């Protein structure tokens, strides 16, 4: 079986893949879309993270392709419908990076509430901006989590431990599903009205595109802080910009953008906005788990024995 790894994988995962019986692995990262279409025909499986786009053209050219492995959660870089139609299995790692993403969301909540990036930038510029950096505590505040799947729940546990009240909105999950995780499920509008911090943890689908827009920002508590470590496009960026400039939203922390990389984005020009370049799953531990899991799933999909 020939397997193409087209984005970087954790070294331990690559070793595990190479050690499997009857498998030949090629690692070719940073291929152009044309190069990928040209090469894919000889492979039985491809393993990608988020950089490689497995488009309909790639699927069509993948005459021997049996499995597409996504080392991560979101499948938005894969034409899943085309793959399914062609009888190609698509496997991902839905749980492996949950803690990493939840921790980044929490880090952004702290960074926003205490303006840590601004303090750092000031110090590096030789300034001592103590008066301008009065923050707020997370303790006793309400966190609204939109999407209470694996990541949302990990964040909820950590927020509850900090003394926050946690509300959740998720049309696909019941209170019983949440077990003893301290989240109270409420309708979206109630979450918007009551939350001091709102963190998104949901995929981008037709249903969730611009889930937070002008109407939703208007409903929110004045001074709310928004965190998005999920997917760009779930927030209407123009509406968010207006809500910050209009003082309705006190700040936003964005790890994801409608277009990535966002270039010189007007939101990043605002003092109240902090950001990271889509690094939710980018931890040593997260990438180790993601890599091992995707390798196991790809080998399983190919019916190949692990070493
Ligand atoms: C994921 O979907 O697993 C994360 O957003 C990480 C990524 O795509 O890089």
From TrEMBL:
One of its GO terms (molecular function) is NAD binding. Keywords: Amino-acid biosynthesis, NAD, Oxidoreductase. Residues 106-280 form the D-isomer specific 2-hydroxyacid dehydrogenase NAD-binding domain. GO terms for biological process: amino acid biosynthetic process. It holds the Pfam family 2-Hacid_dh. It comes from the Bacteria. Residues 3-301 form the D-isomer specific 2-hydroxyacid dehydrogenase catalytic domain. Belongs to the D-isomer specific 2-hydroxyacid dehydrogenase family. This is 3-phosphoglycerate dehydrogenase. It comes from candidate division TA06 bacterium DG_24.
């Amino acid at each position: 079986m020939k397997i193409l790894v087209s984005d970087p994988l954790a070294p331990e995962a690559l070793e595990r893949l190479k050690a499997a019986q009857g498998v030949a692995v090629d690692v070719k990262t940073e291929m152009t879309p044309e190069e990928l279409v040209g090469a894919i025909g000889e492979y039985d499986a491809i393993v990608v993270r988020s950089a490689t786009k497995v488009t309909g053209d790639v699927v069509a050219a993948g005459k021997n392709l049996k499995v597409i492995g996504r080392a991560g959660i979101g499948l938005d870089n894969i034409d899943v419908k085309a793959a399914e139609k062609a009888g190609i299995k698509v496997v991902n790692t839905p749980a492996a990076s949950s803690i990493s993403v939840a921790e980044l969301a929490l880090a952004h909540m702290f960074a926003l509430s205490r303006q840590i990036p601004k303090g750092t930038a000031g110090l590096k510029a030789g300034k001592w901006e103590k008066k301008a950096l009065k923050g707020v505590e997370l303790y006793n505040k309400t966190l609204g989590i939109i999407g209470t799947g694996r990541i949302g729940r990990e964040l909820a546990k950590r927020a509850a431990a900090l003394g926050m009240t946690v509300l959740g909105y998720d049309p696909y999950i019941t209170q019983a599903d949440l077990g003893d995780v301290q989240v109270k499920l409420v309708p979206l509008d109630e979450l918007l009205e009551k939350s001091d911090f709102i963190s998104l943890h949901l995929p981008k689908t037709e249903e969730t595109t611009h889930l937070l827009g002008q109407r939703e920002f208007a409903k929110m508590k004045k001074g709310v802080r928004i965190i998005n470590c999920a997917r760009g496009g779930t927030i209407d960026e123009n509406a968010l910009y207006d809500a910050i400039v209009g003082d309705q939203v006190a700040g936003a922390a964005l790890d994801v953008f409608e277009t990535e990389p966002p270039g010189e984005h007007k939101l990043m020009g605002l003092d109240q906005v902090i950001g990271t370049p889509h690094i939710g799953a980018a931890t040593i531990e997260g990438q180790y788990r993601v890599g091992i899991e995707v390798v196991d799933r790809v080998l399983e999909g190919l019916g190949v024995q692990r070493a």
